Amino acid sequence: GLEEGDKNQFSTFSNFITTINQKKEDIGNRNSPTQLVMPNIKNGRDLPPLCLDVRQKQRMSIDTLPQELKAPSPPEPSLPIRTKTVKDFQDDVEKSKASGDWKAVHSFYSTTFDSFLEINAAFKKDTNSQFNTIEDSGIDAKFVNVVYDALLNTPQDVQKSVLKGIINGLLQEWTGPRTKDDLRAYCILLQNPQFSNTSTYVIYAHLLRQIAALTEADHHFLVHWSKKISQRRFKQVVDRLLQFISLRLFPAKPEEFPPMVKCTWWIPSATKVLALFNAANSLISPPIISYTDFYNSTLDHIDLMEEYHNWQCCGNSHRFSFCQYPFIISIAAKKVIIQRDSEQQMISIARQSLVDKVSRRQKPDMNMLFLNVKVRRTHLVSDSLDELARKKADLKKKLKVTFVGEAGLDMGGLTKEWFLLLIRQIFHPDYGMFTYHKDSNCHWFSSFKCDNYSEFRLVGALMGLAVYNSITLDIRFPPCCYKKLLSPPIVPCDHKTLVGICGVTLEDLFQIMPELAHGLNELLSYEGNVEEDFYSTFQVFQEEFGVIKSYNLKPNGDKIPVTNRNRKEYVQLYVDFLLNKSIYKQFAAFYYGFHSVCASYALLLLRPEEVEILVCGSPELDMSALQRSTQYEGYQKTDLTIRYFWDVVLGFSLDLQKKLLHFATGSDRVPVGGMADLNFKISKSETSTNWLPVAHTCFNQLCLPPYKNKKELKQKLIIGISNAEGFGLE
């Protein structure tokens, strides 16, 4: 951005506001003196929605538009002739730096940015071509970048002239649809680095408002043109928009901006323009920037539940809510929404149970407020599945686990261990429900047919319980699984509607069966005669319990040869068969089980990758971060025992570090908020140093005797964390 500390660089916009007022008087405007004239826009709520309400999941495809939006483009007005090249401009800048005379550069900037036509005249690759397609914006990106890179190093009067010119362009009186030249100008102006400075925000806000108010067809072009911007410039525009939203929400100097009451449209406009860049980012594989780069952590500090409830209650209205644009909400904020939504559902269910009991004049029992699961370690899977099947009506109550014959009281630790042990057993290959693929280090659903898929439903419920009770699981499903789990994110009312079916690609198969996917990719790129050399048909074979069974990928597939012409269809049908059709009943049961616990509109806010993080946490352990956030009781962080402890732990292998985390917290996964969210505590144990360390997993607390040396501490710690199953005295 512009250099900080120069308080007079734009003289609080008095010159610009004067210009705005004069322009408005010329066109007979009656609006307030600080608001630019916009056609047919009264306030932020009148802006057309960029992404349709996510509750309805009716997102318009970026690649296909209805016929009515494909109106013929208005004729482009003739452009002025401008012949300055990149080299000419760079030479002018160098001469100005050497001589101190910026007249030529000032003339270029003031002329170029004086109107949308002049912007096109300067930056359009060929002024004689229309460039009316989504494939090519016609913008000379190199020239734009050079001009903007030089701008911030020019004198203040040059920079002011650019902003004055932008005001002139924004004040243009529009008499009809925007031309492609207008869209090109918007695309170029969005990349202006001057908008990183808060003193330019009044102008920036009106630019964003005009872009947000464009038609869906115009947005279609801007999205496709934006994906051609370089990664660095793309990230800068996104960061600029996020900063604009943050500073409007929490201004460092409120006096710099108009009162919030007079500019309620600022944040909706910026968010809607940001949605265009999010759409552009999603069109590229791999994306231009990570989806996490669209997170605005400032939103973690607003009333998220109010946003969520407004969105739920007013989802079909034009009332703005950040929940309409979930890409901007961080995973930490979404976790808060889901947790509070879960807590409210738990309280509601528990209250109803209490009311029912009292209405029948029965004595209330505290156990009725919980989902009580009582299991034997020796029959862990069967007992757990029986308990969950019997207590379907209680799944949305707070979970409490009891191990038969053990003295532990469940304050959270028993629940963690129950999940960990149960997942290990269910996903064991001998159990037969899931197949482990060594090449990809992940599990996938077994395609074996059976009479009863209820166990898959109960596994889904188990995963739902983990999310509902904020427990992270050590599950290795591929990303495709979470994409299917959100297809659709809300269980359809019509039970005939297919669930768990999503668009799958060869890339999805690579994440599960890389060897097979590689073979199919070879088929697609084979340069010889596919039909004669491969001799394949649209029929595939699978082994089930030692018996080879055949399946047609399409009607009469066994009679249709795979050829060079239809091999793409063959590969797509084969991938769809493996990831959707062959496991449909298994995954549908799993889907219904998960949603029987986690049914919530909050799921609409999540990307598949975010569901995975909520379910599994992160496997990346950062013990240095844990050291920084650890609290102490009875110890100081400078004590010798504590220094010994961290020397030992930081030197552990990853496997031992995971065992320590599991020993102290009941899980070897890192929660969404990172190590700091564990609230890990080390307490001084006054017992003999002959004793092993003790953990209170309910409170993520490690009780450590004051061992005399590092060797003794390491020995006792390894014994303790390597023999950590069970609660109470054994």
UniProtKB/TrEMBL annotation:
<keyword id="KW-0833">Ubl conjugation pathway</keyword>
<comment type="pathway">
    <text>Protein modification; protein ubiquitination.</text>
</comment>
<keyword id="KW-0597">Phosphoprotein</keyword>
<dbReference type="InterPro" id="IPR035983">
    <property type="entry name" value="Hect_E3_ubiquitin_ligase"/>
</dbReference>
<dbReference type="GO" id="GO:0016874">
    <property type="term" value="F:ligase activity"/>
</dbReference>
<dbReference type="InterPro" id="IPR000569">
    <property type="entry name" value="HECT_dom"/>
</dbReference>
<dbReference type="GO" id="GO:0061630">
    <property type="term" value="F:ubiquitin protein ligase activity"/>
</dbReference>
<keyword id="KW-0436">Ligase</keyword>
<feature type="domain" description="HECT">
    <location>
        <begin position="391"/>
        <end position="730"/>
    </location>
</feature>
<protein>
    <recommendedName>
        <fullName>Probable E3 ubiquitin-protein ligase HECTD2</fullName>
        <ecNumber>2.3.2.26</ecNumber>
    </recommendedName>
</protein>
<keyword id="KW-0808">Transferase</keyword>
<comment type="function">
    <text>E3 ubiquitin-protein ligase which accepts ubiquitin from an E2 ubiquitin-conjugating enzyme in the form of a thioester and then directly transfers the ubiquitin to targeted substrates.</text>
</comment>
<dbReference type="GO" id="GO:0000209">
    <property type="term" value="P:protein polyubiquitination"/>
</dbReference>
<feature type="active site" description="Glycyl thioester intermediate">
    <location>
        <position position="698"/>
    </location>
</feature>
<dbReference type="Pfam" id="PF00632">
    <property type="entry name" value="HECT"/>
</dbReference>
<dbReference type="InterPro" id="IPR044611">
    <property type="entry name" value="E3A/B/C-like"/>
</dbReference>
